[in-house]
Amino acid sequence: xxxxxxxxxxxxxxxxxxxxxxxxxxxxxxxxxxxxxxxxxxxxxxxxxxxxxxxxxxxxxxxxxxxxxxxxxxxxxxxxxxxxxxxxxxxxxxxxxxxxxxxxxxxxxxxxxxxxxxxxxxxxxxxxxxxxxxxxxxxxxxxxxxxxxxxxxxxxxxxxxxxxxxxxxxxxxxxxxxxxxxxxxxxxxxxxxxxxxxxxxxxxxxxxxxxxxxxxxxxxxxxxxxxxxxxxxxxxxxxxxxxxxxxxxxxxxxxxxxxxxxxxxxxxxxxxxxxxxxxxxxxxxxxxxxxxxxxxxxxxxxxxxxxxxxxxxxxxxxxxxxxxxxxxxxxxxxxxxxxxxxxxxxxxxxxxxxxxxxxxxxxxxxxxxxxxxxxxxxxxxxxxxxxxxxxxxxxxxxxxxxxxxx
Amino acid sequence: xxxxxxxxxxxxxxxxxxxxxxxxxxxxxxxxxxxxxxxxxxxxxxxxxxxxxxxxxxxxxxxxxxxxxxxxxxxxxxxxxxxxxxxxxxxxxxxxxxxxxxxxxxxxxxxxxxxxxxxxxx
Lengths: 406, 122
What we know:
The complex is a heterodimer of chains A (about 400) and B (about 120). With about 400 residues, chain A is of the alpha+beta class. Chain A contains ten helices and 17 strands.
């Protein structure tokens, strides 16, 4: 449990709020490049500000737009309905791998790190987004919680892994023939190790199996509000949780492939089936009970909300209410990464208040050199898990057709 | 009669037995601006407990009705009809944390097809 005051401090995103000021120190995903085809100016709702993406001399920028009434937080008026606020501030925008990133802060924006998702050629990345009706922090926290996958995403029966392209947890684990869904189901009490790194947190979930074998899953928190996790043996997901306002957020993901080019048409089709444009609101949502089916919950999935793990996460975080009431929470050992994350978030907020911006993670020049991060699943002899996880990552990088060396 | 008084206190009508006769005996309810979930366990007893999981606040209305209680789909925390946590399957073997976890609970009773909650104790 934390105090209401602390909960406010780490969740609220206004330009004068502590977390809002911190997030403004970093590039924020503002739109998908695909959406530029809707026409410019393109409405952007970001960090409580009503903005529009327009062309600039150097490419694109964000300018303020005038909003009348009290529209839905994610409302995107059509280009011809947008009135730009010519006197308002404008913000720089750049395109990286299918996402328009914007910088809403003062001073120099940081350099982009040399992560796999930014290094891979355009053929090997795919970007998408989705709307969640809740505060950004609870959305991020579900992504740094390795235990939940054994419950929330539990499949009571396994699917054919060869039909799992483009879907989370539907591959086999490492080079075995064991479906990931089976490992998650059979070993629900992972030992979770958290290391502070120069980019945020490295989170290692060890699932100790039979015969002295251990499943090692490495995921990452990238400061301030992204995660990098394995999706399949071939792909990782780098995902930002971006505030629209205090009570709504978008997830933006870059899917990065280490081997074959990404089948973008299939990836986009799979995801458009689950979302409505132009605001990327999920078709399954609180208003229709996430298509909850008690019979499916009894026999097929843990939630009864279908096979798309995004919907499970959406239900988990939206059900907490617009801003999770952390004065009532009871964190356990499985929440160790969340506890560590809040600690580095609070330290960064304190550093910013004391104007020690040069000590902020991912803000200095060295951040531009950071590669990786290691993000994979491996099954190994328990005694060798540390080396084996690293070795599996190196093999994948060596075989990769683009330069993924670290 | 929406309310009645007995030796325990004031009982308020909150639902009808028929509302819980479907395949999934569980209902979301709001009492005094607070959100609750009413469910019937395998023994046939009713539980009226707070709607948000005490762990990280997930919505127990979508919980799994199993093992004579209600299980949160987020991390499998399992609650009996009194709101007492009886299992935390993601916590380390041997952890006793669950014994300290309880969801707010309101006593309920059923009479002639009507379900009452104990609004205020005497």
